[in-house]
């Protein structure tokens, strides 16, 4: 914390040198069409990120420096207006905004929260801030300055980021793009590699925390991330951006927009190309991304919008956590490692990746990967002739949607979106008998040359080489179609209602196929019961091990009412959804001799939530919200598709949520304060994991009834004393813990076909929830010394981060110690952007730079408690074998990801 204090003082000292004379610009913002005063419109000085929002009377007041200033006024659903004024004294500047049809529908479909109206906690990030701070990272990493939001790059692979909100992982965080939910239909996860490059097309992100204002049956328990792309641009133009970074990183982005043509239509498009070797060893990337948006104004009452975005990519992964000492002996010593512990883990360095190993260039075997638009694949050369990755991810998940906005009468409007999402790709791994290198004993690596030699020596009676070990892929080919339709009816000036339906259906094919035969001619598979009993000799792309199709059918509806009377706005939402799951195993015979098929019953879930905001004064508003959600189990919680059986006695997960907050704007709009407290009780959480017992039989461990309580305080502060300086702070303090011990079943599938049921107790009461820091503080100082120049210093501090653990490891009643607490750490980042003062008409040239982890700190970003694979163990039996964890729940027992070292990103953009 002392480092945090020193950095904050430094920011203040820098700011004190930039103080200058300033004046007040104030006025009223109204709708040009109706004359209505617009509440929550944003007014700010161009080139800064601080301004003011209009109050309930449409009034604003901001401080500006003397001289020429461009004042910008923007409001969701209306055209943005810029006025350049010469400020020599306090002055009045009013804005009259024209309804802008092209952006209204998508923001309504996305359920965007509004300042001083929507009673939820939320933070907005506009395109300007994204361009200043993102630096070609995965989108979630931009949000770590937001209270209670934690994102990491995990092993450092491109698109392998994750995000947690208020102690909930992204299975319980709704991710929406242009109003369309994109969480995985089977398990709720989000794979950010599918959206690599989306940041270049995004116009704004709104992070709503808690149950949020979204009325669809999405997993918005921790929160909702609303991503809005820029569907149309008001002005004709083109932009080219070139970026460079560590490890041969290069990224090129070309964007173009038509502007509004004949008052009827507009379109914009972007294409992105990204390559690089990766900062962490072997995390290379080879990616494309594209975006297209168009809108057509049919008449004054109807318009259509179309969006399509996709990011075909191939990248090396680093997915295996290591013991701390493998990354750094010095850091391990600081955590109390003994000399014996250090001796068990040779130091490999901060960028070590277990998932790659050299291979002889003389080996020229092809590898099987899916093509850009195909689903099966083709034989291609490996990424690098000198090494091979054990783990490679490749995927292309395009999403397209058509939106229709229709004014049916003066009181009734209808918003409808039809969407489709495809998807094909997979992730590689090994299968069969592999040869390993043990230079780092705790993290064996595949010895490709030895494995190839072992295969080549295995010649069958026909003179063909039968593989003993191969590189395989776990494939996922899918499609989803859906429709969302919302009707808005205005009963009176005070009461507005909304009703909607949400229909989705998805089909996902899961199978494994042969990626690399490693010198062999074929892989012998006996997995398919419909094939010859002698087995199938498979070449590249051959399917084996498992081959099943999972179907998800979903329909839901909601009703909502919003009431406004004077200073009060209140709303209530009720929603219900029904989900059905189907499973077909293409390799296994069912009782009738055909493919095994399972179909679940219809499972219903519901949500009830509401809230109110009260605008006490023109500068102070308070809000409160509450809700109860009964969430339907995911596919993986209903059907065990590894064995083709139902998981018995599954219950809906229950969430009870309460929240209250207050917002204040003072000092003539220079200071903004936001604060809120929340409580979320999570009951009947389900969990399961497969397990293989000593006799070789398989088992499934299941838990029902896990309960946890998530409470916390969140603060946001923004202060801009003058035009040239802005300070921001976001802080959150959580107390997340499990509330009860829980019982579970141990289903042992014995080799004779019978199932043995055993009961276990798991002791987790009062243990802290892991996987996210429960204390987060972020401070930033932004400087605007001259026109077009922005510099920002950002410091983020994380503490009380307990290692992830599963309840399945807590079967001893006396084992009540917390999971290992990751050492607190802080990161300093720097961002710079400068618009060069060129004299070329219509041409803008911008230089930008980012330095992440400026001080090159070594830190742990993710951890799992009591590792079965890389924990430091000792001999407790005297037989010379290290059989027991030396320090349970200690640093030497954890497996971790080291954070990235200092990295940079620089570039140039040219726009016209």
Features:
912 residues; mainly beta; Ferric Hydroxamate Uptake Protein, Chain A, domain 1; 29-stranded antiparallel beta sheet; five-stranded mixed beta sheet; 8 helices; 52% strand; globular
Lay out the secondary structure.
Layout: H1 2-16, E1 22-31, E2 42-45, E3 51-53, E4 59-65, E5 67-74, E6 81-87, E7 91-92, E8 95-97, H2 101-109, E9 121-126, H3 127-133, E10 149-152, E11 162-165, E12 173-177, E13 180-181, E14 202-209, E15 223-229, E16 237-245, E17 249-257, E18 265-276, E19 285-299, E20 302-310, E21 313-316, H4 324-327, H5 329-334, H6 339-343, E22 356-358, E23 367-369, E24 378-380, E25 387-389, E26 392-396, E27 399-407, E28 412-421, E29 424-432, E30 436-437, E31 445-446, H7 448-456, E32 469-490, E33 495-516, E34 523-525, E35 536-538, E36 543-565, E37 568-589, E38 595-599, E39 603-615, E40 620-631, H8 635-638, E41 639-640, E42 645-646, E43 653-666, E44 671-692, E45 698-722, E46 725-738, E47 742-749, E48 755-762, E49 773-783, E50 789-802, E51 821-822, E52 825-836, E53 844-852, E54 860-864, E55 873-874, E56 884-885, E57 895-898, E58 903-911
Parallel strand pairs: 1-7, 1-8, 12-15
Antiparallel strand pairs: 1-4, 2-3, 2-5, 5-6, 9-14, 10-11, 12-13, 14-15, 16-17, 16-58, 17-18, 18-19, 19-20, 19-21, 20-27, 21-26, 22-25, 23-24, 26-29, 27-28, 28-32, 29-32, 30-31, 32-33, 33-36, 34-35, 36-37, 37-38, 37-39, 39-40, 40-43, 41-42, 43-44, 44-45, 45-46, 45-47, 46-49, 47-48, 49-50, 50-51, ...
């Amino acid at each position: 914390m002392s480092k945090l204090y020193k950095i904050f003082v430094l920011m203040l000292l820098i700011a004190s040198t930039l103080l200058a004379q300033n004046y007040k610009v104030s006025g009223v913002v109204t709708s040009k069409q109706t004359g209505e005063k617009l509440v929550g419109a944003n007014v700010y000085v161009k080139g800064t990120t601080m301004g003011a929002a209009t109050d309930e009377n449409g009034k604003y007041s901001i401080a500006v420096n003397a001289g020429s200033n461009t004042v910008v006024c923007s409001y969701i659903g209306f055209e943005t207006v810029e006025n350049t004024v010469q400020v020599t004294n306090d002055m009045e500047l009013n804005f009259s905004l024209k309804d802008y049809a092209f952006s209204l529908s998508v923001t309504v479909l996305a359920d965007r929260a509004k300042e001083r109206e929507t009673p939820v906690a939320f933070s907005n990030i506009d395109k300007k801030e994204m361009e200043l701070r993102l630096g070609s990272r995965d989108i979630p990493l931009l949000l770590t300055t937001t209270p209670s939001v934690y994102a990491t790059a995990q092993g450092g692979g491109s698109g392998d980021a994750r995000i947690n909100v208020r102690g909930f992982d992204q299975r319980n965080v709704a991710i929406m793009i242009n109003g369309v939910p994109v969480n995985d239909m089977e398990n709720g996860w989000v794979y950010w590699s599918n959206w690599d490059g989306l940041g270049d097309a995004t116009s704004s992100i709104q992070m709503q925390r808690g149950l949020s204002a979204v009325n669809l049956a999405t997993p918005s328990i921790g929160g909702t991330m609303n991503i809005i792309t820029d569907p149309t641009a008001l002005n004709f133009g083109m932009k080219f951006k070139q970026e460079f970074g560590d490890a041969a990183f290069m990224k090129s982005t070309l964007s173009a927009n038509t502007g509004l043509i004949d008052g009827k239509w507009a379109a914009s498009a972007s294409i992105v190309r990204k390559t690089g070797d990766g900062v962490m060893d072997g995390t290379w990337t080879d990616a494309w991304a594209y975006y297209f948006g168009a809108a057509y104004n049919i008449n004054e009452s109807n318009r259509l919008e179309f969006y399509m975005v996709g990011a075909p990519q191939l990248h090396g992964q680093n997915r295996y956590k290591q013991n701390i000492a493998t990354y750094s002996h010095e850091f391990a010593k600081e955590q109390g490692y003994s000399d014996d512990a250090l001796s068990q883990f040779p130091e490999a360095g901060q960028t070590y990746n277990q998932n790659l190993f050299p291979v002889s260039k003389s080996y020229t075997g092809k590898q099987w990967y899916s093509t850009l638009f195909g689903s099966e694949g083709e034989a291609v050369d490996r990424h690098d002739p000198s090494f091979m990755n054990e783990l490679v991810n490749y995927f292309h998940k395009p999403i397209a949607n058509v939106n229709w906005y229709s004014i049916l009468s003066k009181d009734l409007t209808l918003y409808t979106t039809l969407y489709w999402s495809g998807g094909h790709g997979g992730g590689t791994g090994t299968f069969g008998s592999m040869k390993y290198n043990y230079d780092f004993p705790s993290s064996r690596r595949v010895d490709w040359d030895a494995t190839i030699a072992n295969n080549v020596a295995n010649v069958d009676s026909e003179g063909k080489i039968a593989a003993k070990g191969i590189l395989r892929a776990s494939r996922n080919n899918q499609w989803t179609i859906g429709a969302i339709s919302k009707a808005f009816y205005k009963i009176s000036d005070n009461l507005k209602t909304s009703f909607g339906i949400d229909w989705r259906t998805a089909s996902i094919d899961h199978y494994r196929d042969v990626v690399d035969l490693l010198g062999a001619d074929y892989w012998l598979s006996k997995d398919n019961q419909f094939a010859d009993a002698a087995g199938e000799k498979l070449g590249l792309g051959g399917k084996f091990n498992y081959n099943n199709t999972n179907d998800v059918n979903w329909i839901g509806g909601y009703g909502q009412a919003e009431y406004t009377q004077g200073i009060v706005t209140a709303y209530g939402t009720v929603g219900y959804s029904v989900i059905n799951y189907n499973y077909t195993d293409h390799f296994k015979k069912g009782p009738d001799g055909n493919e095994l098929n399972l179909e679940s019953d219809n499972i219903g879930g519901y949500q009830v939530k509401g809230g109110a905001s009260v605008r006490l004064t023109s500068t102070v508003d308070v809000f409160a919200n509450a809700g109860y959600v009964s969430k339907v189990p995911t596919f993986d919680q209903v059907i065990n598709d590894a064995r083709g059986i139902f998981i018995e006695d599954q219950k809906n997960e229950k969430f009870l949520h309460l929240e209250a907050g207050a917002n204040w704007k003072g000092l003539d709009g220079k200071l903004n304060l936001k604060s809120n407290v929340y409580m979320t009780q999570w009951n009947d959480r389900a969990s399961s994991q497969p397990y293989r017992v000593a006799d070789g039989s398989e088992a499934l461990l299941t838990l029902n009834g896990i309960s946890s309580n998530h409470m916390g305080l969140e603060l946001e502060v923004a202060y801009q004393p003058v035009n040239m300086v802005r300070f921001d702070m976001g802080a959150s303090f959580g107390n997340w813990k499990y509330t009860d011990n829980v019982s579970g079943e141990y289903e042992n599938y014995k080799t004779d076909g019978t199932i043995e049921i055993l009961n276990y107790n798991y002791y987790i009461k009062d243990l802290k929830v892991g996987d996210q820091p429960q204390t987060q503080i972020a401070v930033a100082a932004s400087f605007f010394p001259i026109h077009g120049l922005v510099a920002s210093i950002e410091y983020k501090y994380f503490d009380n981060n307990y290692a992830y653990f599963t309840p399945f490891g807590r079967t001893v009643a006396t084992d009540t110690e917390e999971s290992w607490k990751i050492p607190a750490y802080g990161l300093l980042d720097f961002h710079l952007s400068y618009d060069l003062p060129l004299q070329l008409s219509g041409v803008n040239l911008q230089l930008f730079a980012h330095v992440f982890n400026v001080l090159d700190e070594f830190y742990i970003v993710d951890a799992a408690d009591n590792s079965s694979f890389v924990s430091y163990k000792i001999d407790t039996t005297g037989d010379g074998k290290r059989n027991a964890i030396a320090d349970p729940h200690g640093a030497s027992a954890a497996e971790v990801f080291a954070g990235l070292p200092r990295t940079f990103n620089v570039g140039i953009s040219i726009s016209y």
